[in-house]
Amino acid sequence: MQKITPHLWFDKEAFEAMSLYVSIFPNSKMTNRLFIYDTPSGTADIITFEIMGYEMQAFSAGPTFKVNPSVSFLVTCTTRDQVDEYWKKLSQGGKALMELGAYPFSERYVWIEDKYGVSWQLMYTNEANAKPMIRPVVMFTGEVAGRAEEAINFWTSMFPKSKINDFMRYEKGEEPDKAGTIKFGSFTLFNQEFAAMCSAQAHKFSFSEAISFVINCDTQAEVDAYWDILSAVPDAEACGWLKDKFGFSWQVTPTALYPLLGDDDREKTDRVSQTLMEMKKLDMAVLKAAYDGK
Q: Which residues pair with 74 in a beta bridge?
């Protein structure tokens, strides 16, 4: 299991969207599917899947939140034809955010929003030893525009096996973005690749619970530690979800929870899910006691 897993919130389309993604990209598959019953939105569907070997989750839980381009997924392609192939399939029913073409940073690039609202950056690279890969790109806009570097420094300081790789900065004359702020920053958390951008342009979106990062924790002590470090908005704490000081959403989740929710005994899973929905920070001992009927 990946240490950090991107989590996408859909109304009812999680399985449909996942099926499209795994059909487009090589080395992709669904790995798990769970149902949580009797939630405020009805039955919630949680699907874990891989795209090019990269783990993600899709969640059908009603129309409360809607994905937007504040988080996109950058797919590195080693041929121009790969860019075109993925673009043709992902763009059906969607729209272009940056048109397919040549740019100073890539000979073949496009930024699109698919029909489910999920954003993809498809980029050809001819760098030596480059390999196909996918990584999330977090865009800092609105009230947090210009704070990408601060966030990168914070996140890399709190997670082990983390580092800052490189920064590309805005220069004077690229207003409204302030000179010196991050145009594109590459960093690593738990040996996983991420990127961040700042944009002071007028955007109609900002961070949303619709795209969060799940931190898969092996112990309760780990859950407690990440919760204490990250949570900065008490009103946003619910069911293991929190928001950090930048307004970005995380889920701090004990890995031992998944087998409890996936049990074939509906009575046990219902007790676990109902207990979970009453929590803010997840307590694995309490969840296990609910599973055992204690």
A: 121, 135
pLDDT at 130: 79
CATH among 3.40.50.300, 3.40.630.10, 1.10.3720.10, 3.10.180.10 for 4-66+208-291: 3.10.180.10
Evaluate if pTM is beyond 0.90.
yes
Q: Which residues of the chain have pLDDT under 50?
A: none
Domain-by-domain residue ranges, the chain? 4-66+208-291, 71-198
Inter-residue contact 199 to 146 (CB < 8 Å)? no
Q: Which residues of 228-265 are buried (b: 16+ CB within 10 A; e: fewer)?
A: eebbeeeeebebbbbbbebbbbbbbbbebbeebbeeee
Q: What is the pLDDT of residues 79-104, one digit of tens each?
A: 999 999 999 999 999 999 999 999 99
Closest among 250, 239, 254 to 285, alpha carbons compared: 254
Query: How much of the chain is helix, strand and coil, in % rounded to 5?
Result: 25, 40, 35
**Angle at alpha carbon of residue 76, lines to 178 and 49, rounded to 5°:** 110
8 Å CB contact between 273 and 262: no
Rama region for 209: left / alpha / beta (φ>0; ψ in -120 to 50; rest): alpha
Top CATH class, 71-198: alpha beta
The CA R_g of the chain, rounded to the nearest whole Å, is 19
Q: How far apart are CA 231 and CA 245, in angstroms?
A: 7
pLDDT of residue 129: 80
- Amino acid 166: pLDDT: 94
